[in-house]
Design a protein that fits this description.
single chain, alpha+beta, two-stranded parallel sheet, two-stranded antiparallel ribbon, 5 helices, 4 strands
Length: about 90
C-alpha cells in the first residue's frame, strides 16, 4: 500500500503528467494499492478508479471519478451552488 498526500501540489503541467504516469506504472507493475489525498482534479480523474469526497471530515460522496465530478452536491460544496445548478 502506498499513501500519497498532495503529491501533485505545486507541480507544473509537465510534472503532473510525469507523476500521473509514474503512479500508473507503480499500480500496473507492482500491483500496489494507492490511497491518495489530492486536490488536483486532473490527477484524480486520470489515476483513480474510485473517489471518496470529504467535506469537514464527513463523507459526502463515493464512486467513479466521472460520477463524482457530475454529482451536484459535490460541485455545490466545492465550487458553490451557482456551479451546481448550471
Amino acid at each position: 500500500m502506498l499513501l500519497l498526500d498532495e503529491v501533485f501540489a505545486g507541480l507544473n503541467p509537465a510534472e503532473v503528467r510525469g507523476a500521473i504516469d509514474l503512479i500508473a506504472r507503480i499500480r500496473r507493475e507492482f500491483g500496489v494499492t494507492i490511497i491518495m489525498v489530492e486536490h488536483v482534479l486532473k490527477a484524480l480523474m486520470e489515476t483513480c478508479e474510485r473517489v471518496i469526497v470529504l467535506s469537514s471530515g464527513a463523507k459526502i460522496a463515493e464512486g467513479a471519478p466521472a460520477e463524482i465530478a457530475a454529482d451536484p452536491h459535490v460541485v455545490s460544496v466545492y465550487l458553490g451552488k451557482a456551479y451546481a445548478t448550471g
